[in-house]
Specification:
Layout: E1 5-10, H1 14-25, E2 30-36, H2 39-49, E3 53-56, H3 65-73, E4 82-87, H4 92-101, E5 105-108, H5 113-124, H6 132-139, H7 143-146, H8 159-169, H9 174-181, H10 185-198, H11 204-213
Amino acid sequence: MTAPVRVLVCDDQALIRTGFATIIDAQPDLEVVGECGDGRAAVDLAGRLKPDVVVMDVRMPVLDGIGATRLLAGAGVPDPVKVLVVTTFNLDEYVYEALRAGASGFLLKDAPPAQLLQGIRTVASGAALLAPEVTRQLVGRFAARIRPAEEVAETQLAPRELEVLRLIAEGLSNSEIAAALVISQETVKTYVSRILTKLDLRDRVQAVVYAYRRGLVT
């Protein structure tokens, strides 16, 4: 049998933390190995418990979720942990910074339990969780403030790869990109893989952040 996905839940609101833990522990393929109420405790517990996924709130005392995510999954971390950020709509820039810090994805706190569970499984599998509709609303809403003054041409990418990157950043799924470009989903996956390799990006989330930072989304 496959071992269950080990999950650490970090949220400073006890009711939310307990609710998440109860929902997660009820699944045969998931296991809550720890709970905590601040980012510093999350970093310490992750070091000891070695979870597969950390479900991380953003606003917390001692050390917020962004700082904790950076320590757990940021650039240069030798053994990064997968972090799934949970937040609310009024924390746009916090979400963006958390993704820059190394989070593998994010969900809204009012998402249904099934979406939380699927999000944990998705992140644990190594895929990025970046819901298209949430990308458009959260990242796109303040793109003008994070875009550089001049757009940068990505000469490393072929024209079609650059086109795929822009569509990823606009929040399109692989199937939507395939339909837009009239190509197969397998071809889209190949392009995505090439983009990540050429730009030295870990996953789809980093690709979105990269595109906005480089001014590739109009």
